Known about the structure:
Blueprint: E1 3-8, H1 15-23, E2 40-49, H2 51-55, E3 65-67, E4 70-79, H3 94-101, E5 106-109
Amino acid sequence: MTYLVGIVGKPNVGKSTFFSAATLIPVPIADYPFTTIKPNRGIAYVRVSCVCQEFGVKDNPVNSVCVNGNRFIPVELIDCAGLVPEAWKGKGLGNQFLDEIRRADALIHVVDASGGTDEEGRLCKLGAHDPLEDV
């Protein structure tokens, strides 16, 4: 079983950058809201210590691969369009976004900690927006 992990956050905060870094899939990345219109999907790997090292046994995992005592577990990532206030009313790409993300087993919430984007994802002066409002 491969888990589906959704990457969420307001527009223009680095969701696609994170997706591209995690999956090594090049996707359009730009500094304006809604660069991502259609969801990007790809496989990333979560690295955990393998039990073969801890217990000194030979293992043969069926859900992952073990390399030098590290197990690499595949997860499917979905990078969706940014979420804006009142998306549930259809604002931005809201309904389309919500339909894609509802299938996810878990979510990664990307937040612009610099405060350099407003609640709609538009660029603003660094620190002008409180990132805690986005959580």
